[in-house]
Amino acid sequence: MRQEKKIRRRLMPLLLLTMLLSVLFGMNAMAASKTVTMKKSSGAYVYQQNRGYTGTIYHKFTVPTSGVLAVSGNKVYSWGRGSMDVTVCNSKKKALTYRESVNASGDRYLTYGIQKGTYYLKTSGNASYILAAGFQKMADRGAASKSKAYAISQKKIITGVIPIGESSNKADWFKIKIGRNKKLYVDIDSKCSGKIRFQLYGPSARNGCTIATLANSEGTYYIGNARTRKPIGLKAGTYYIKVSRAAKSATGVYSFRCKLK
Q1: Dihedrals φ, ψ of 52, to 5°?
Q2: Which residues pair with 163 in a beta bridge?
Q3: What is the DSSP letter of 148?
Q4: Residue 19: its H or E element
Q5: pLDDT for residue 4 is more than 70
Q6: CA–CA separation, 138 vs 141, rounded Å?
Q7: On the CB side of 9, how many CA atoms lie within 13 Å of its CA?
Q8: Separation of alpha carbons 38 and 197, rounded Å
């Protein structure tokens, strides 16, 4: 027993050193990464690797203005192509989205609203792959507060962006003047991941009422009678349309047009 205790005491520093080294090497392995710059080709940012680095890779790209970003790619095998995981990060390489799967050959892509700036697409564990990010400019008309709401007129198409990295409490505000007993119809088209909500505030909706809650879809919506669900005439005055996230992680772009009848 004493002999065993002596051996343990002698081995203890070595065991502690071994544990420390394993932790340090483990941390180094986790922290190791590579940064590359995506090349712009045919209106998209593209990067391709063939039998290369399999650790974490940050793919740098810069967007010139607000708009919509579509991301897709494929892991490449000797027998074909498969899905790969991607995370969108900000200029400091902090994750803005969850890790999600894309598959270009399976028509699986991710759509995000995005603001002007530098971003990174983070991937790992891919020896051979191709990654692409397509960007399309879109005006972000919404004002940050009700007091500064963007004035719109009927039949005019308005666009907005719900960007990644923005506080989930932020919203876009618009205002429109409506005559007495006019019925409001709103044509909405959204390209979003996660649901967004359109709400109306004004003389006939002092506490606000929901026009629509939707994700990646389009349609015509109106303020209706709670019992009959038929469109109702509104009181005359200035009305405000608020566009916000119904889901905290919602992101994307939208367009809408108001029609009065």
Answers
A1: -115, -150
A2: 113
A3: G
A4: helix 2-31
A5: no
A6: 9
A7: 6
A8: 34
- The DSSP bridge partners found for residue 212 are 198
The SS3 of residue 146 is helix
Contacts of 173 by beta carbon, 8 Å cutoff, 6+ apart: 142, 143, 144, 145, 146, 148, 149, 150, 240, 241, 242, 243
Whole-Å CA distances, 223 to 71, 89, 162, 171, 212: 36, 39, 24, 20, 9
| pLDDT at site 41 | 83
| Dist CA 128 CA 227 (whole Å) | 58
Tokens standing for residue 254: 């939208």
| Two tokens, residue 69 | 């970003």
- Mean residue pLDDT of the chain comes to 89
Asked whether the beta carbons of 210 and 246 are under 8 A apart, the reply is no
Q: Do residues 151 and 176 make contact, with C-beta atoms less than 8 angstroms apart?
A: yes
Under 8 Å between Cβ of 168 and 251: no
pTM of the model: 0.82
Q: 244: which residues sit within 8 A by CB, 6+ positions away?
A: 170, 171, 172, 196, 197, 199
Q: Tokens 């712009």 map to which residue?
A: 40
- Both tokens of 147, joined, read 């007091």
